[in-house]
Amino acid sequence: MKPIRVLIAKPGLDGHDRGALIIAQALRDHGMEVIYTGLRQSPVQIARAAVQEDVDVVGLSSLSGAHKSLFPKVVEALAAEQASDIPVIGGGVIPAEDIPFLEKKGVTKIFTSGSPTDAIAVYIKQMMNLETRVEPKRIAHIGIAVESLEGALPFYQNTLGLTLEAVEEVESEKVRVAFFSVGDSRIELLEPISDDSPIHHFISKKGQGIHHIALEVDDIRQRLQQYKEEGVNLLHEGPKQGAHQSEIAFIHPKAAHGVLYELCQPKQED
Ligand code: ZN
After folding, report:
1. Do 164 and 64 share a structural domain?
2. Domain end residue (candidates: 128, 148, 169)
3. What's the gap in Å between 122 CA and the centre of ligand 1?
C-alpha cells in the first residue's frame, strides 16, 4: 500500500518549530511520508508545495495566534490551485473557542496542544480510510446512583413529574434499575442489591449522585478498536451485554476528565 504523504507547514511569522518537528517525527513513526516546509511560509507557498509534492493531507501548525486568518487562507489557496480535495488539519496553540470558526472555514480538524501525537496519526489514517468517527446519536440515558429506589421515587414521580417506565434487576451489575423517559433520553436510577455491587462502592466513596452518562453509538466495535489503537483507557476491551440486548462498554473516567461514559449500541432490529 502506498504510504500516506503529509505536508507539515508553518504559516506566518512565528519562529518556533519544535512542535511541528515532533508531529512530523510522530507521523513518520506511523509509516507516513512527511514533507516539512520550514518556517514562515505564506498560504500560497504552502498550497503550491502541497500540489507539487502530491500530498494527501496538509497539517498546519501555529503558535503565533494568527491561525484564524492564516488557516482559512491556506484552505482558499488550495482551492485556487484546484486542490480543495486535500484536507487541512491544524494544531498548535489554538483556543477551543476558535475551533468551530476554523471548521466552518474548511479546516477539517483542529488538534489542541494537549492532543497526543498518536491520536493525530490515527486520525489521519482513519481519514484516509474514510473511517471518520460518526457522531454519537444522542444521550441514551443518565445513570444515577441512589441508596434506595423506593426512597428516590417520590422525587422523580411527584416533584419532577416523570412517569416510571419499568423496574428491572441487572444481575451482572448487582443493581435494580428504574427507568424514566425524558424526551428522547432516559434517566436510570441504580440501586445496589449487594455490597459488592459497583454502585454500592460508588455510593460509599462519593455518595448518591450522577454515576454515568450513556451515549448511543452505531459503531461500538469499530470505536473500541480505534480507542485501543489510540491508547484510550477503557474499563473493558470488548463490548458486553447491557439491558434490552444492547451492547455496552465504558470509557475509564481517567480518560474522560472524571466522567464515566457508557457507549451503547441498541440491538439491530431486523
Ligand atoms: Zn447505563
Report:
1. no
2. 128
3. 28
